[in-house]
Design goal:
Length: 889
Amino acid sequence: MDVITTHINADFDCLGGMIAVRKLYPDAVMVFAGAQERSLREFFMQSAFYAYEFRRIKDIDLDAITRLILVDVCQAERIGPFGEVAKRPDVELHIYDHHPNKPHALRGTVEEIRSVGSTVTVLTHIFMERDIHPTSDEATMMLLGLYEDTSKLLSHATSTADYQAAAYLVEHGGNLNTVSDFLVQELTSDQVALLHELLQSLTAININSIDVHIAHASVDDFIGDLAVLTHKIKDMHALNALFVAVRMGDRVFMVGRSRLPEVSAGDILEEFGGGGHSFASSATVKDLTLVQVLDKLPTVLRRHVNPHWEARHIMFSPVKSVRKTDTIAQVREILTRYNINAMPVLDNERVAGIITRQVAEKAAHHLLQEVPVSEYMSSDFSAVAPDTALQELQELIVDRHQRFVPVVEDGKLVGALTRTDLLHHLLSGAVARRRKGIGEPGNGLTLKKRGVAHLLRNQLREPLQETLACIGAVADELETNVYVVGGFVRDLLLRQENFDVDIVVEGDGIAFAEEFARRHECRVRAHKKFATAVLIFPDDFKVDVASARTEYYLEPGALPTVETASIKLDLYRRDFTINSLAIALNKTHFGELLDYFGGQSDLREKAVRVLHNLSFVEDPTRMFRAIRFEQRLGFQMGGHTEHLLKSAVRMGFLERISGPRVFNELIIILREPDPIPAMRRLDELDLLAFIHPQLSFGSVFNRMFAEAKRAIDWYELLYTGDRCQRWKVFFLCLFSSLEGSEVRQIVKRLGMPPRDEEFFDNERNAAHQVMDELEWRLLQHKPPEDSRIYFMLKDLPVETLLYGMARTEHEETRRLISHFITHLRQVRCLLRGRDLQSLGFVPGPVYREIFDELITARLEGKVATREDELQFVKQRFSPKTKQIRKRRE
């Protein structure tokens, strides 16, 4: 008897594989070795595929089996009662699997084991090679297995062969709608409760510098689809390695998932009697309690998670260096500018020595600033190659006390590492990034890496996903690293939409942009002075591209001097930790989140923090940005950061920045959907007083800003087509109680452009005069007619009108202004200048007089059509005398 079977807790890959193998062994009997996952059981209950004969194991005479065909499994302990059958010498064993064939695995007379995403893929390629054609039902069941095991062809283990297999099955009638229906299942209430318990227990342990997460729970009854829950936890927290253990009744069920080659989930759970892929595995434990499993798991992890770290994995690059002819003074300046403690000294390209900040400072103390650094550098040092093992590095740094180690290849400096880098790699739990150039020394921080490719897939629109993938592809061809950085990454992690895409290239950003534009349909606008460029796509979507760069300030408040640098130094120059995040776009590392400065932690804590203590001194405009981000995101400024801000205000550093830079920051704040909380904070932290001593955000301002926001929101819902510059409305509110001379002082202090200077000087006065007249008329119980309202308000910009609505305390005044905006403002004459010419009127001031009369007549209901207007003009005006025949009523 021929029997086809698979592992216990069978999934869709087992089902699809068994159906496929049946095509190769048409006389064989299909039997499940044990239970099936819930999704598979529901599939049998709901689908019409029950026609495929599956026999129950109790109906099989195990002694009669002469050939056993295993699908998606090669271990005796995972096939239940068939384990003993597989070991019998009289049984011929055939194996079809995509798990690696291990030394202790079963051996078959026929083995088709290929390193692909699913067993279905193995069998589909056999079909393609032998010209075997599945029916549409068979193709659908095979597609279910293929899509499930490859996470819908999105798993990192997905291969080209998997895509080819999927195409072949779709061509043969595989129904993707059915696949979608059965792979997307709602969680039951029991599963939701179990998921909650697992999330509550989620912890991380660090094994040889790699974070492995463990979750556990205990329930009395069996709950299916533990693998689905594990996958959800992994995606929810973007975990690289996760092991879940759940006691259900008298057994412990385990599931492992891993994105890291250093963590083989299959090898680890094999020690618990299970197995699987390196990236996905499971086990059912009968002889240990949950406590014993959790006690054993860290020991097993330490045995298996043992990456071979080399210098190349933890070194930073490029390395700041000096020439041996540079003076001590020049060395001190560079050490201070880049906030580093040691540098290599080069003789042409050869590393000749190492100079430290301590030595440079002592030399300067002894008035040796002009002496060449070669006189005092340390020439007694060791350099290492990129493939130097971690153990050797430990010996060099810890035992031989060399704090700075150059990494040299073919006689050239390619990187370096410090004692701090090594200690953080060993102790911090961060995963060292297997990539050249992960950072610079000097700030005591190390890289936190996390995969967020799923966020890019799930949150971004397809065109933007494709654009980012294309950017990564071009970078790969140019052999350079490229990242999306800043606010875009921050908002992605916060699940907020942001279309301001900033790209950083470790190299020539302009050259990269030009090369990208040559390959894709877009234009480039380059700014060579700043080493930046803008990619402009046909739909006018823009992507900013910049070279990775660092900056330093020659004096507080000055504009920065910029130099090219590594991605880490580029991120270090950012204003706040939450904006110092980057995502790699190169294909090999696509979706890796770079976090050198604790940005993820601050996002979780909802904190705005600067990267270093001189941040507000170097760029005081960051004070305004700190408040803006704090209020926009609903965050709180970190205690130390707020202390630094107050100190910078107290010491007068705001006085050192130009007015236009402050003006620009204020505009951005006042463009926020609700600037009121930010304005309160500006007042609380004495930043409004810096603009003018009389500015204070008291109750009057608070009321006026609230009314301005209400008026602006109302206006924008009208969709009039006339744009409102909301920041101007709020600025008018800010100036409301000031004298004209004080407003002019502020306008001058902020360096406003002439057009804005004129606007605030004129419109504020115009608004006050009109509002005063309107309110006087209402107090006299003489509300103006529509025509009077029209001529009072028609020349005022919409920002001035909305300011008037905010300033007044009378609801009737607001109603009159809103009536003008909604009903009167768009009233127009139907006649034009050429019509008056045809009636014999000579162009001149009389035209304005006639049109004003026509508007009045239209508002008073005296004219409605073009003919009415023609008759009205003929009756009221004489072309010869140019006089009104009848006095305006």
